[in-house]
Amino acid sequence: MIFAVPLYDDNPTARDPIVTYLLIGLCLGAFLWQLGQNERAILYGYGMIPAELFGLWRPPRAYQVVPAWTTLLTSMFLHGGWFHLIGNMLFLWIFGNNIEDVLGRGRRHFRATERMCRWSGRAAPSPGSSALICCFIPTPTFTFSSGL
Fold first, then answer.
1. How confident is the model over 43-73, as pLDDT tens digits?
2. What is the CATH topology of the domain spanning 18-136?
């Protein structure tokens, strides 16, 4: 099994990726803050749990820190550990500047696309920006035949 980790890309950009730098800084700051906290309190208080979002379940009162709808935003910056954070930030560093360059930061396209990708990944209660990273990485399309 070969495990390859990209370190850079060969696509030049026209300007500095300010939004990408900001997202990396916010994720790093949130993770450093998260390290000093109770893991269960962080996941229940700031992680997006679909059952809570749709009113089907409530966490214990001690963990109800923010309204359920705000966890759509707060969960985007949580990470499950150092490897999760480093992997996501590496891919954001490599691909984020090209995405920001193409979509632009002044027109809000990059931020809107980033939010949509992160929210689409909230179907499972997982912390971090993995959904964002997977959304921006081009994947091959496979066509399956039904045999009919």
1. 999 999 999 989 899 999 999 999 999 998 8
2. Rhomboid-like fold (1.20.1540)
